[in-house]
Amino acid sequence: MESNGHHVAKVDDVLDQWGFVSNPYYDHELLADILFELFVNREASIEEFYKSLKLNTSIFCIEGDYGVGKSSFFRRCALGQEQLDESNIITNKITITKDTTEASFLLTVLSAVINSLKVVSNLSPESMDKLTEIENVVIIQRQQSTAGSLYGLVGHTRTTGKSEQHAPKYTNLNMLSDLSEIGNICKVELDKKIILPIDDLESEKCDLDQALYLVGLLRDLIFTDNYVVICIGEPGLREKLSASGRTRSIFGESIVLNELSFNDFKQAIEKRLEYFSNDSSYIPPFDDEVYKKVHEYSYGDIRWAFNTLNRMFEVLIRKNYIVRTYGIPHVLPVLHEIEYKAFSSLESNEQKLLSVLSKRGPLSPSDREFQDAMGSDRATIQKLVQKLSEDSSLLRKKKVSRKYIYEVGPIIKSLESSNLLKTN
What we know:
The chain is α/β, with parallel strands linked by helices. It is 52% helix and 12% strand. It has helices spanning 5-18, 32-38, 43-54, 70-84, 102-118, 125-146, 172-190, 208-216, 219-223, 237-242, 262-275, 288-298, 302-318, 328-344, 348-360, 368-374, 378-388, 410-415, and strands spanning 59-63, 88-90, 94-95, 156-160, 163-167, 193-201, 227-233, 255-256, 395-400, 403-408.
């Protein structure tokens, strides 16, 4: 959207004609109070979350397919926990990328913990000084890491009173020791535990083996009973995390989120339409058949579904469509136009691969049928699917028996009825 005042004013005027103060399908992360009001279903899973905390479970997982709403579910539970029970301090979400190292991970955890405690008013002056001392070291290490140092394995300065003490290295053991000390401060002075949510533990977003190893580094912290680690990621995450045995004995049961039913999806839409309307008076842009079709294409990826509705409504606004409720005949061409742009921007061999899978169904790079259709060997296909599966809206990866198979994502699924895909 253009940022000049005239264009924004025009969009606002058009939205007002539909009866909305803003786009009700807006797909970005909702503010906490809005999320709490608009959240649908998951009541049983929310109860499981609170039960895990009440039972003093030290580590557990929130599992589900990509886009099913795991992060939103955690935010909803965290908001409710803060309103109903102030016995825990929840840090910001911690993410692990393919470039995350041991030291950068622990520095991120330290920063998240310190930031969550800085707003607490009833810590002793001595403890606040200690937090400030550790924070200064962490800041220096992160700055040096950004400048190209060996991820914190360099000299650092601690300040005590007016003197400065120089230590040779701020090692992983130093960081874990500081985290342990902070946890003890929190327990003794506040009688609270620190909850560490580690998000995006999915093979599309990180090196999962490395991520599991990094989570394992927190084992000793978990055993202090001052921390709760919540791992948010793909199905089967608990089994993978506990396979090494380092945390198996203290693992709680996973909270498994299944995709929303169509009725729940429709309820979520209706809540949004109502919330973002002018005095509850509005014209629904799309009918139920459109919502059913988007839900069908989504594979349960609610993030993609709302993003798609958002973009389709933006087209109606931008092209100044007549204000009324639109059905499949008018909306599908809009959807095809939007998604074809993503498909046509790919390399020709990537387009061919997605077209082959669209026609032949889920396949593995080791399948001869796949190799023959592509005219490529397994290694070449493997490189392509690894790249494309980083965007699950294009290509979805799942494990069947002992091998990974790949199927087209919502973008390609939505184009299958358009004759826009190149097929063999």
